[in-house]
Design brief:
By secondary structure, the protein is mainly α. It is built from 15 helices and no strands. Helix 11 runs parallel beside helix 13. Residues 383-387 have low confidence and may be disordered.
Length: 387
């Protein structure tokens, strides 16, 4: 695999850290800026909305541009948004920087996915995607807790400065390692027909559902552990780290399997994923089982999820940049849908134990969508066959 992919993953690591680190900094931000904790929480929501809206929008803007120029522009804006966020004392300005950073993040990831696919052999998109998304999983393992610890020791602004500094070597790497060409000569209109592929739309929908299942439980994993499992608050970081380590393992393993044998990864991994969420719902009161399942479910979630993103890139090889944008948006739709669905279950009086059940239901919904898509393809092929 080209070393450039690992350098792009460094930028994805910084961006993933930024996206999730606020969960450990909200109280300090609220106190420092004189706003409520829910208002500080809106900073996370603003980032998520920016990612959903920005991914296809920024992909459209980047179609004709050189991939190096698009990556440099997105990463530079992302860096500057964090510098501005670290310097400001205005909540409104900080909120605006989160939206700008999300737009830049979305643009970078969309182009990076297309770049990763272009840098490898045509049958190695899955492994290239897994390296890139490995940056996000490492953000869960090291970046997010590291940002929270840095915020506790030096203040929340230090975490923003750290993210900006991590982007510097990634910027240098893009200049030195990413080829200058790569823009689409056909433009947006030339790529649009490739986006009509039923296989692409199915892969995107499945990716959104699986990611929703992941974030439904991950969002409430800490209160599930403390309120249901009985794990002390001091052991929650261990639980989250296990999930992060599992996700990195799952992405790494799937990268070696998803190109040649995607069906076993998706069907076998998906079935195990649904079963694991149901098992967690039933055994959440058992600490050793919960800790073990945190690792297993992290691995399965990201193995299946990264494989689906790779299938989307395969299905839209004629529109790599726009497909990367849609894949980024699909992941973030899932990241927004999952916590909302889990919150509905909690708000309905079913408790934290019901949330893994919601995750299992979302994975089963993905299976239903896949089965329907397979049936339609089979029925269509039969209808077109000569009598």
């Amino acid at each position: 695999m080209p070393f450039t992919l690992h350098l792009l993953a460094l930028a994805v690591f910084a961006q993933g850290t930024s996206e999730f680190m606020l969960s450990g900094l909200l109280t300090d931000i609220a106190h420092d800026l004189g706003v409520s904790v829910p208002a500080a929480g809106a900073l996370t929501s603003a980032f998520a909305v920016g990612m959903i809206v920005g991914a296809p929008l920024m992909a459209v803007l980047a179609v004709r541009r050189s991939r190096r120029a698009a990556l440099l522009g997105s990463l530079s804006v992302f860096l500057l948004a964090h510098v501005a966020g670290a310097l400001t004392s205005s909540y409104g300005v900080l909120l605006a920087t989160r939206v700008v950073a999300a737009l830049a993040n979305a643009g970078f990831l969309a182009v990076a996915l297309a770049t990763a696919a272009a840098l490898v052999a045509p049958d190695a998109k899955g492994r290239a995607t897994s390296i890139l998304l490995g940056g996000t999983t490492l953000a869960c393992v090291a970046g997010v807790p590291g940002g929270a610890l840095l915020g506790q020791l030096l203040g929340w602004r230090a975490a923003f400065w750290a993210v900006a500094l991590i982007c510097v070597p990634a910027l240098v790497a893009v200049v030195r390692s990413v080829p200058a060409g790569g823009g689409s000569r056909a433009g947006v209109r030339g790529e649009l027909p490739a986006l009509r592929s039923p296989r692409l739309l199915t892969a995107l929908l499945l990716g959104a559902l699986v990611n929703a299942a992941t974030f439904a439980t991950f969002t409430y994993l800490a209160p599930l552990a403390t309120e249901v499992t009985g794990i002390g608050a001091d052991r929650v970081p261990v639980l989250l780290a296990l999930f992060g380590l599992g996700s990195f393992t799952g992405v790494s393993v799937a990268g070696r399997l998803s190109d040649a044998r995607p069906l076993p990864v998706l069907v076998g991994g998906g079935a195990a994923l649904a079963a694991g969420w149901l098992l967690l719902a039933l055994t959440a009161g058992n600490a050793p089982v919960t800790l073990a399942l945190a690792f297993v479910q992290g691995a399965l979630s990201f193995a299946v999820g990264s494989t689906l993103i790779a299938r989307a890139l395969y299905a839209a090889s004629g529109a790599p940049t726009l497909a990367g944008g849609l894949a980024t948006a699909a992941l973030n739709v899932g990241a927004a849908l999952g916590p909302w669905a889990g919150g509905l279950a909690i708000g309905g009086g079913h408790g934290y134990r019901a949330v893994p059940g919601v995750s299992a239901g979302l994975v089963l919904a993905a299976f239903a969508v896949a089965a329907l898509a397979a049936y339609r393809r089979s029925y269509g092929d039969t209808a077109k066959a000569p009598v």
